[in-house]
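> forwarded from #structure-qc
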């Protein structure tokens, strides 16, 4: 009797263990959220951005590689729709789309949260969000364009070239440039500088546009903020150098590539400090539709003295003193 009772107890225990094991196998494992960057930038540049995001997430208590995964896709602009569709098939939890990648990301999904990193063209005019204060869609993030910054760039150009009387404003057709041009023209009126708008259509017009500027004796040009100009900055800077045109442009990256002046938000700082805050909030349940689009309020001035020397310019001490960084 004792042996039979011990056998039954053992059998019940074994069956209970088997049932618990099966239940554990059937229970879905907690999914680690996956964030994907999407951009046409070089893989090395995207890796820098990814590392900045991961660093910012660590400060917010996340453990990248353990309880959140951050990876990405890069490719030529014409491949972005394909890459965005791939991310949707992989069921990523969030897409961090560059300004150039936003059209592809938006076309690929209306449900997966999309974070603008960063939008250079006006997101309301582009149809990405209903308003900056209340996006109303699956898209939110950071809008880099600050029209008044164009006026400051002209001010810095005027300080670098005291006898400047005319400046070319390089814009791209269909890139929502009106507000930026208005700001530059207002500043030009105050500074006594005539503003000449040069509109680009596509890459085939770059050579002729800069060639015409060179023949007309244009000594300085101001590049408006747009996704296209940021992508095309190596070519733009090359042409400006060929025709000995001093260039003022929206971000540090232009000055690092050879423009005389870069003035705008610090992109790397935004990756580390602002983007992780959006990611954190969305992963914890916030809806992009209810999260206001941010616009930077902090800007940095970067001067390239190597370019200044090549152009025969002597940057005045008063302008050097205002620079956040100087490239020798």
């Amino acid at each position: 009797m004792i042996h039979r009772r011990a056998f039954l107890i053992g059998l019940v225990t074994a069956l209970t263990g088997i049932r618990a094991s099966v239940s554990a196998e059937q229970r879905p494992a907690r999914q680690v959220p996956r964030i994907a960057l999407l951009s046409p930038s070089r893989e090395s540049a995207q890796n820098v951005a990814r590392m900045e995001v991961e660093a910012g997430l660590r400060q917010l208590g996340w453990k990248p590689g353990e309880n959140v995964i951050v990876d990405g896709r890069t490719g030529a602009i014409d491949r972005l729709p394909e890459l965005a569709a791939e991310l949707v098939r992989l069921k990523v939890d969030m897409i961090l789309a560059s300004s150039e990648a936003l059209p592809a990301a938006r076309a690929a999904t209306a449900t997966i949260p999309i974070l603008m990193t960063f939008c250079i063209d006006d997101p309301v005019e582009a149809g990405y969000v209903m308003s900056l204060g209340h996006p109303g869609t699956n898209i939110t993030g950071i809008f880099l364009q600050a029209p008044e910054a164009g006026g400051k760039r002209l001010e810095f150009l005027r300080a670098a070239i005291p006898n400047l009387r005319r400046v070319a404003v390089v814009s791209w057709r269909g890139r929502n440039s009106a507000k930026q041009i208005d700001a530059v023209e207002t500043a030009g009126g105050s500074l006594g500088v005539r503003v000449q708008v040069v509109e680009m259509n596509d890459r085939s017009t770059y050579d002729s546009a800069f060639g015409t500027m060179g023949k007309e004796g244009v000594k300085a040009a101001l590049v408006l903020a747009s996704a296209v100009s940021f992508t095309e900055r190596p070519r733009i800077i090359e042409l400006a150098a060929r025709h000995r045109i001093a260039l003022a442009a929206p971000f540090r990256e232009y000055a690092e590539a050879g423009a005389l002046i870069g003035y705008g938000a610090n992109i790397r700082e935004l990756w580390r400090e602002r983007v992780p805050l959006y990611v954190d909030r969305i992963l914890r349940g916030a809806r992009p539709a209810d999260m206001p689009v941010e616009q930077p309020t902090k800007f940095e001035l970067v001067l390239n003295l190597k370019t200044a020397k090549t152009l025969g310019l002597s940057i005045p001490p008063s302008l050097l003193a205002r620079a956040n960084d100087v490239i020798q």
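QC bot note: The domain at 147-264+299-327 is CATH 3.40.50.2300 (Rossmann fold). Residues 2-26 form the longest helix (25 residues).
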